[in-house]
Specification:
heterodimer, A: 297 residues, mainly alpha, MetI-like fold, 70% helix, B: 426 residues, alpha/beta, D-Maltodextrin-Binding Protein, domain 2, five-stranded mixed sheet, four-stranded mixed sheet, 13 strands
Chain lengths: 297, 426
Amino acid sequence: MKRARTWLPGLLLVSPSILLIGVFVYGMIGWNLRLALSDQHRPIQDADFVGLVNFIELWDEARWPGAVRNAVIFTVVFVGGALFMGWLLGLLLDKGIKGEATLRTIYLAPMAVSFIATGVVWRWLMNPAPADRATGLNALFVELNLDFLVNNWWTNPEFGMAAMALPAIWQLSGYIMALFLAGFRGVSEDLREAARVDGCSEWRVYLYIVMPQLRPVTLSVVIILGHMSLKVFDLIIAIAGQQIIADVPAVYMWQMVFEVRDPAVGATIASYMLIAVAAFVVPYLIWSIRKERSEGR
Amino acid sequence: MRENSPARRARWKPASAAALASLLAAATGCGGGAGGNEVEVFSWWTGGGEAAGLDALIEEFESKHDISFVNAAVAGGSGTNAQAVLEGRLQSQDPPDSFQGHAGAELRDYIEAGYLEPLDDFYAEQGLNEAFPDELIEQASYEGSVYSVPLNIHRSNVLWYNPQVLEDAGLDPEAPPETVGDFVDALEQVAEETDAIPLSVGAQWTVDHLLENVLLGELGADAYNELWEPGADWNTPEVSEALQRFDSIMEHTQEESGSEDWQEPAQRVVDGEAAFNIMGDWAAGFFDELEMTAGEDYDWAPAPGTGGTYMWLSDSFTLPVGAPNEEAALSWLELVGSQEGQDIFNPLKGSIPARTDVDAGAYADNEYLTWALGEWEQSDLAGSFWHGVTVDNRWKNEIDTAVGLYLQEDDLDELQEQLDAAAQSE
């Protein structure tokens, strides 16, 4: 009884959220998986368990390989670009620029904009019209006599998705900067001083003292960006709409569920997206749990 | 409880869905109440001429009946958002009293799922079988029954052009190309003689729209209509040739088309940036909004090769199974199908009535609608695939994917193969 008094109030306090998450997150994931393993290709139809058939057959669908390819290109450019830009901005601010607080706010501001609004603006900026009809950024290039930079942006059949990542980089760089800035500031000034006293040049201080301590921040950043990127939907819809050239798994899933009305295939795509995100998140969780244990917490 | 018989599962599923739906309805405070004498009509008409037309119909309805009208319109995506909302309501057995849908195969999913009541008796009672063209009823039917009442007719196969640009290119603005072959020649001439875009298109779906026009123009109405029989053979030399033409036409479109919807390409014609555009007749309403003058800023003709055929699409209203107030729903459908209702709605929406016995005077001050009305009475009919007359959503989506991949990879044989595969899988 005495023991119960210590754990019971705590359990009561968290039990609503355990229950809600249990039903609305894990329960729904389970339901989705059940659909993905069934042959329910029409909303109203008795479904049978068919195992992994949907997961295998999806690779024969004309759209799927391209959608996966697009998602990979987008993820590589977006995660790499936002990571680098965020790190660079963080580094510059860490050096103590005048008006740092103002700059920080300016860089962070795009975070407050929704992907849909970002998409509408960048749809115009990245207008793919050639030089003689150019608008948006292409018009700027023409104006500056930089005609060789005029390009077809996201409508390029090969690497258009790399251009699609630009608005996302623009939007998230400020946030990543804030994370890195906190990381930079978390490195004790004493350590830096000690290195300087030992005759270490400033850039070596960053390379050998500061950077290694940013590894946990970098990892969190990659996970945050990676899971956003694999699920991207609204930005694509705002810029390209439903077109094969900018197809990604989330758009494909939406069309299968709400237009074609094929629950099983929609659920299969959703499962693949979940697996892809899990591939990012689970190793991180394992790593951080191990680390906490080894540090004796 | 170990028992897990199908019957149990079947009972459990709607119950949980209904519980979820009522929870959501409570949360948003908009559950379609069964109480009171009202009729809830679901559509995606929320703006422009179509909303004005719907409002005028509502006013007429309420002045005639002692039934209050609940306008459950969902905005956005030319119907796709509304259809997603509707799907949820139908699955949770909470249908509106009537909902909007494109007449034809697009309703097939709903019919097969048992969501819609057949309206054959209603047609007989209201004399609609005589009022609508036979071909329209035939093409909109499913297994011999009709399931919706068409309110309006739009035309898909219209060639819009800029007379001045045609003149600059040395073409006769009074005699636009009448066959697909002539059309390709005309596009080449525009490309050589002027700086204008020969044919403006927009995002992927407008290319689907172009494809249906080229198929109809090249194959003719009968062969075109046969393409939409499930299992139809698309692997014929005739289809190959039509796709070759389609490919030649696509060479004369602007490269930035992917970033435009249908309005920008249409506007390019009246702005003199493009010579031709093939788009449905909602473009006429758009040109009116831009305050352009027919015959000066733009002109039109049947899409090349499609003279004498009306490629139609139609917004229609249905009677769902389990409509909370069926009697009121039928009163609504009566107005929708009546000469009076159609003449109130259509001049505002910028479309023509589906009935052939209407008052032509109501459309007299609109040059395009007057022309379209004349054509409707004397043309053969063909259904638009992109706008849901001839194919269901699955088939339509497969064609859209094939066209999208063609746009990306420019592989014409692959396109034909996938179009054929889509027809075979039906």
